[in-house]
Amino acid sequence: MTKRYLILIGFIILKFVLQYFLLSPEYNLHRDEYLHLDQAHHLDWGYLSVPPVTSWFSFLIFLLGNSVFWVKFFPALFGVLTLVIVWKTIETLKGNLYALILGATGIVFSSLLRINMLYQPNSLDILCWTCFYYIVIKYITSGKTKWFYIGAVVFAFGFLNKYNIIFLLIGILPALLLSDQRKILTQKKFYYALALGSFLILPNLLWQYNNQFPIIHHMTELAKTQLVNVDRIGFLKEQILFFLGSIPVLFSAFYALLFYKPFEKYKLFFWSIIFTLLVFLYFKAKAYYAIGLYPIYIAFGSVFLSAVLQTGWKRYLKPVLVIIPLLLFIPMYDLAFPNKSPQYIAKHPENYKKLGMLRWEDGKDHDLPQDFADMLGWKELARKTDSVYACIPNPETTLVLCDNYGQAGAINYYTKRGIKAVSFNADYVNWFQLNVQYTNLIRIKTYEKNSSEFNETSPHFRSSAVAGQITNKNAREYKTTIYIFKDAKVNINKRIKQEIKEAKWD
């Protein structure tokens, strides 16, 4: 085994170790992870929240035992594969050992550590972007049309993981037309590959059609509630933060793609990032949507710098460029990851507050960053719900109804009694078991001051009680309340069907 591959293995091990080391055991999974894991029990060609690929990995995780180790393994794996693709890109571009180390360091010590910490579609999305760009480079380098078909498969897989990869296509097509590579549009095999990719994504498109295109509703709602608040200048500022330690490498890549003769045939990549960012800006996209753009440019920049920093005083910059990502990782390590206990953060809020990390969606400062608070209280909720469920004489006719997907997913993940909690929120609206005639209701209600839930619901049952609350003050779900209603006086199923219709309509 060559020296360079021993070094690559070292980076791979480091990446895996960091991903597990950066998460303190005091934290549970994130609310989004519970929803994705529950999709393993409802396999389909699409969901209201995401395309189907996440559910395939969730099913694999379920088969492997559904432990937290495997939940965290797959996003870490996708991050490692992103590192490997960048490494292979540098090799394709004829980069030396220094270029490989510079590129690998930039990938490992970046915001990808945060992205690869959570089981969400984002890690695989970034991998698919990087892999697709690598395939374009391989085609330009070799001219072999087999890369058309490989690219079609990668794009289709990325599309079935997260629709965000459409922006890659929108950005690269005009760049292709401006470059000498537009000649590929005259090749029959390009269109055969296009047909292959279309065939692979067709099942999801049919699912969208059969379900009245929920993606359109989702994007409309997202635009109204979240994207409308996106500041375009803020979007551009945040781009700098994702690979802050590799900024010199990235700017070197942009320069090299325009003026470095060995990269002349890759010039379309310069225009591709310009067009893609413009499209993101036009649609007022969230900043992290664009992260998949940058790994491939770190490869270009690393190869260019390794070539120009060979002699004279410039050679002394070589270790500096490797050290910068490591140095910037130190403050990132202290603040960006849930690697300190909630109690510690609550007692030392100063630096978090300076960076605005304690500000939540409600516009107020809290003791913990919102993402960290979203990883607390779930086990407590599931344990208490299990206890209530066990006290009901006929639990099989009991509906566990939650306010949001996080509550439902957490109960279903941690339950020891086979509870199948549901909600009118997200994909759970499609997962009600209406073949059961419900007579009891366990209601999980997010805390609201002066809530009327108990007074409004109890008259429809012969027995009602408040059964518990989440007591973890650091949890975002703090004071979420568990109500128990037994022996219904009304037809619960009829009301559920009406609520499902209204939820889908909304």
What brief labels describe this structure?
506 residues; 23 helices; single chain; mainly alpha; globular; 5-stranded mixed beta sheet
Describe this entry's structure for a reader:
The chain is mainly alpha-helical and 506 residues long. 58% of the residues lie in helices and 6% in strands. It contains 23 helices and five strands. It has helices spanning 3-21, 31-38, 53-63, 68-92, 97-108, 112-115, 121-142, 146-161, 166-178, 188-210, 214-225, 232-242, 247-259, 268-282, 295-308, 317-335, 342-347, 350-354, 370-373, 378-390, 405-414, 453-457, 492-505, and strands at residues 398-402, 422-423, 440-445, 461-469, 481-488. It has a five-stranded mixed beta sheet with strand order 2-1-3-5-4. Strand 1 (398-402), helix 21 (405-414) and strand 2 (422-423) form a beta-alpha-beta unit. Helix 4 runs antiparallel to helix 5 (97-108), helix 4 (68-92) packs parallel to helix 7 and helix 13 (247-259) packs across helix 15 (295-308). The radius of gyration is 25 Å and the shape is globular. It starts with a helix and ends with a helix.
The biggest sheet, with number of strands, parallel, antiparallel or mixed sense and barrel status, is: 5 strands, mixed
Using only CA atoms, what is the Rg? 25 Å
| Form type | globular
Distance between the termini: 59 Å
Number of strands: 5
Strand order in space, largest sheet: 2-1-3-5-4
Mean pLDDT across every amino acid position: 92
Classification by helices and strands: mainly alpha
| Individual helix count | 23
Q: Work out the strand percent.
A: 5-15%
Q: List low-pLDDT spans.
A: none
H-E string: HHHHHHHHHHHHHHHHHHHHEHEEHEEH
